[in-house]
Amino acid sequence: MYWSITGTTSYLTQAEGVWNWSTSLTDGSRRHTKGNALVATEGDEAPSLVYYDGPVIGGCGGGSTSFYTYNSGVMLAAAGALYSATKNESYLTSGNATLNAFINGNALLSQENNNNGNPFQTSGILTEPTCDSSACTGNDNAWSFKGILMRGVQYFLDAADDPALTSLYSTWIGYQAAAITKYAQASDGDVGNVWYETTANQVYNPASLGMAVNAGNLAAKVGHE
């Protein structure tokens, strides 16, 4: 955040305002349905505590309820940054709730996914719902989304600096790094965009490699070699 660089109070105030708007679901007029669940049409936090794409601002925007991994990653990084700036533990509570829902799923997330379970996991391995099964056709920027999520998790856990909190997710983090090596890494060392199977239509490019680097950095920081 600019506040951490400049110390200008207005930047922190604005950041907290954006956070409050993004996480607010108190006004029923700002909700519509996806599957059997209510989601916000202003702000972008779903009742499951996972974030989705495409908020509406003053009538501008489509209110998309598509799920992408990076949506929650950005907000996890924000929760960590705001906690570092304010020491307000509500940001840690919120970030932990989002990370837990993202990894472990819950009934509301399944409802938001048309009752098809957690859209972000395939056998415990991080999955990009709109991209991994279709080689990101028409959505090339999605090759970097899982990396943004993993970087956001790192920023959040770094800011929390709480071994007990990190321990809740350490096994899952290490599993992602192991899955990348097992399923996504080619014989020449390059890494594809799909982490959960070797038969997928892998895409190899700098973005897919960057995703793997972010996952590896996070795994190393929490103690996996």
From TrEMBL:
InterPro entries: 6-hairpin_glycosidase_sf, Glyco_hydro_76, MUG_Protein. This is Glycoside hydrolase. One of its GO terms (molecular function) is hydrolase activity. Keywords: Hydrolase. Gene3D superfamilies: 1.50.10.20. It comes from the Eukaryota. GO terms for biological process: carbohydrate metabolic process. Signal peptide: none annotated. The keyword Hydrolase applies.
